[in-house]
TrEMBL record:
UniProt xrefs under Gene3D superfamilies: Winged helix-like DNA-binding domain superfamily/Winged helix DNA-binding domain (1.10.10.10)
SMART domains in UniProt: HTH_ARSR
Name of the protein described by the UniProt record: Helix-turn-helix transcriptional regulator
PANTHER family referenced in this protein's UniProt entry, alphabetically: TRANSCRIPTIONAL REGULATOR, MARR FAMILY, TRANSCRIPTIONAL REGULATORY PROTEIN
Residues covered by region (Disordered): 132-165
Record-annotated HTH hxlR-type domain positions: 19-118
Ranges of compositional bias, category Basic and acidic residues: 140-153
Natural source organism: Amycolatopsis echigonensis
Length: 165
């Protein structure tokens, strides 16, 4: 990347706490917080399922979901099963859905640089089966929404299906 001329002297200006990268990292500050976002994209909505699928303590998941809720990334939606008390599900907001390219970028990078062989999951366009990829472009492209992405399990090294990412 290149800086425009008036910004090339990095010591002459500072963005400090207005830096979008720093603010985003403050929001997604722990592994549990980001894995809660992952689980939302994977369709997880209920607290107990977040705890099981993230593999950490209930208090840690509770803190992560509260943090995401206060930032407007998720919203709680009440539901009631017959004969039970009202409980809450967690759903991504529009701001949460806007994290899809961030999430897929991390998956894409991890698949390329951290997986030995074939990654456990593939993300494809639901209608066509074409791989969903994130790229930097100046071309106008219609972004896909999470509902337009299908997650598929790839075959593991011995033919078994794999399913974690």
């Amino acid at each position: 990347m290149e800086w425009e001329e008036r910004l090339r002297d990095r010591d002459a200006w500072a963005i400090g706490d207005r830096c979008s990268v720093a603010r985003t990292l403050d929001l997604l500050s722990t592994k549990t917080v980001f894995l809660a976002v992952r689980e939302c994209f994977y369709g997880t909505t209920r607290f107990e399922d977040f705890v099981t699928r993230i593999g950490t303590s209930a208090p840690a998941v509770s803190r992560a979901l509260r943090q995401l809720e206060s930032a407007g990334i998720v919203v709680r939606v009440p539901y009631r099963e017959p004969g039970k008390r009202v409980r809450d599900e967690y759903r991504l907001t529009e701001a949460g859905e806007d994290l899809l390219p961030v999430f897929l970028s991390l998956v894409q990078w991890g698949d390329k640089h951290l997986q030995d062989g074939r990654p456990p999951l593939s993300f494809v366009e639901a209608g066509t089966g074409r791989p969903a990829r994130v790229s930097v472009t100046a071309d106008p492209v219609r972004e896909k929404e999470s509902g337009e992405i299908e997650i598929r399990a790839n075959r593991g090294p011995r033919g078994q299906r794999s399913g974690s990412a």
